[in-house]
Write a structure and sequence with these properties.
The protein is built from one helix and three strands, in the order βαββ. By secondary structure, it is mainly β. The chain has a three-stranded antiparallel sheet.
Length: 65
């Protein structure tokens, strides 16, 4: 297990998640710009990646103390 989980990353945003069950499970990754996930979505809005609170990636940056 790593201590570099999304829920302690500076780029993790669970305040933007509106549904309670989704908010408890994860949030949005604000590291990169929003993207379209499929070709059909290219005609709508782009989305921030949704991540689980215990996910991690190589772009982890700890929150300011």
């Amino acid at each position: 297990m790593t201590d570099k989980a999304c829920n302690v990353c500076a780029f993790f945003d669970n305040a933007a998640v509106k549904e309670t069950s989704a908010k408890e499970a994860g949030g949005l990754c604000r590291f990169s710009a929003p993207t379209f996930l499929t070709e059909e979505e290219m005609h709508g809005d782009a989305h921030w990646p949704v991540v689980k609170s215990n996910d991690w990636c190589g772009s982890f940056e700890g929150q300011a103390a």
